[in-house]
Design brief:
Elements (H helix, E strand, L loop, with lengths): L3 H21 L26 H22 L7 H24 L11 H14 L7 H24 L8
Length: about 170
């Protein structure tokens, strides 16, 4: 049975990935794919996945665990490797989602329901799984809560004119 406590723990566990995904949007500049395209002429990731955004996202994802551990009075190094894997995995998952969208002929900013909301979840969970067994109820919680939270954050960003599209 999934409890409120289990939900809080799952969300706390995944915080570095959420923070990384959020802050990656603040990086502009040189694209991660360096402007390269596949033989079909379509970009690998596109202009929206940038080197600066990737580095900013990972850095803030890592910093988030220091802040949370400070508030909880825990040893800072306890979750450092996990934070690195979650943050990096989230942004690699997001880049992979962009790769899939480009292969499907979708343009940057075009909506891909569930792929847009869960690509970073899969990436973060995948890398984190190398150092821990992630409880299935945490995975279920993240798969159910993340799309709603992702859409809400993006809609607020759109209303604040920080995003061009509300998804």
């Amino acid at each position: 049975m999934i409890t409120i406590n289990t939900m809080v723990i799952a969300l706390y566990f995944f915080l570095p990935a959420y923070i990384a995904n959020f802050f990656a949007g603040f990086g502009s500049g040189k694209p991660l794919d360096l402007g390269m395209s596949f033989p079909d002429g379509r970009r690998i990731f596109g202009e929206g996945v940038t080197i600066k955004g990737f580095l900013i996202g990972v850095a803030f994802g890592i910093v988030s665990i220091f802040f949370v551990n400070f508030l909880k009075n825990k040893a800072i190094t306890t979750n450092l490797l996990l934070a690195i894997l979650l943050a990096t995995g989230a942004l690699l998952g997001d880049a992979f989602g962009s790769l899939i969208k480009r292969r499907l002929g979708m343009e940057q900013g075009e909506s891909a329901p569930l792929l847009d909301q869960l690509d970073f979840v899969f990436g973060g969970l995948f890398l984190a799984s190398f150092i821990m067994n992630i409880p299935i109820d945490w995975i279920i919680i993240l798969m159910l809560i993340t799309p709603l939270g992702h859409l809400t954050v993006n809609f607020v960003g759109f209303r604040l004119k920080m995003k061009e599209v509300p998804w």
